[in-house]
Write a structure and sequence with these properties.
about 300 residues, alpha/beta, Zincin-like, 2 domains, six-stranded mixed beta sheet, two-stranded antiparallel ribbon, 9 helices, about 10% strand
Length: about 300
């Protein structure tokens, strides 16, 4: 601004108050807002320059993340707020991410763990929570929704959270059946791992994630992976478990969340497959959602 021949510089400041975060209670330093999709990013200033860089990188990457997420679900997003801080006391991304509910109404204030020197992990954690908002409360707090959220993060975040893998734990436990039944929690790495492997298999069969995701949303919280198999349609619901188990046992080993090796093509498939119409959300959202709780320590 110019006054009396002198130029006065003022930093850009966020006029509105910081959001009420699910758990973070410290100072929220506003970094900026992505120009197209309106993702407002804040950082815990006590973490210094590495966290500030995470925040700046997220502002720069947020539009890409949101557009990719919208392509997966076939629905528009809404403006969200994100705080980057040491979630769980971690600064390497292993603290995960959380928000209050799986929708944009009450779940749009998102917390993600800082990841010093690796902002790609911050973007992936952001996508994990954003994808749950796009589920419209239909898959909240169950193993199928958790698996879908993790797959979205893997594809959009270019597998930056590979250390959060759960499919190996499912295989090591003897491959129990969570295809014909859905686990009523998103905190069980065994049931989540089964979901991760199953979605990898479906993509191997030729179904892109942007066909899988809307179908899962339509099936809702009570839907099973076997019902998803029939809905796509891949074949009779009764065949889903036996065919998947046979394919899984034929693998030499399961060492990651994409045992059928589909992640390299999943991103390219996002814009090529026809996406089914999405049903309206009917399930009641659950309180405080934390994503990606199973991680290396």
């Amino acid at each position: 601004m110019c006054t009396g021949g002198q130029t006065v510089s003022h930093p850009i400041r966020r006029i509105s108050a910081a959001p009420q975060w699910p758990s973070y209670t410290g100072v929220s330093h506003y970094i900026g807002t992505s120009p197209t999709t309106q993702v407002a990013v804040y950082v815990d200033p006590t973490l210094g320059d590495p966290a500030m860089q995470n925040g700046k990188d997220l502002v720069a990457d947020a539009d890409r993340v949101v557009k990719a997420n919208n392509a997966i679900f076939g629905t528009p997003s809404q403006p969200v707020n994100v705080i980057v801080f040491a979630l769980g006391g971690k600064t390497d991304g292993t603290g995960g991410a959380d928000h209050n509910t799986c929708d944009y109404t009450n779940g749009a204030d998102i917390e993600v763990c800082a990841s010093f020197g690796n902002s790609g992990r911050v973007s992936a954690l952001f996508e994990a929570e954003l994808s749950e908002c796009s589920m419209g409360a239909n898959l909240c707090g169950v193993s199928t929704g958790e698996a879908l959220s993790r797959w979205c993060a893997a594809v959009v975040g270019t597998n930056a959270l590979a250390d959060f893998a759960t499919a190996p734990a499912w295989a090591q436990r003897g491959m129990p059946d969570f295809v014909n039944k859905t686990d009523g929690t998103d905190q069980n790495e065994i049931s989540t791992g089964c979901g991760m492997a199953f979605l990898s298999w479906l993509q191997k069969l030729g179904y892109a994630l942007n066909a899988i995701a809307p179908a899962m949303v339509q099936l809702g919280t009570s839907g099973t992976l076997a019902q998803l198999y029939a809905k796509l349609p891949s074949g009779p619901e009764s065949d889903a478990w036996s065919k998947f188990l046979s394919a899984a046992k034929a693998l030499s080993q399961i060492t990651n969340d994409d045992p059928f090796g589909t992640s390299s093509t999943a991103g390219r498939q996002l814009l090529s497959a026809k996406t089914p119409d999405r049903a309206k959300a009917v399930a009641k959202p659950k309180a405080r959602r934390k994503a990606l709780p199973f991680r290396k320590r």
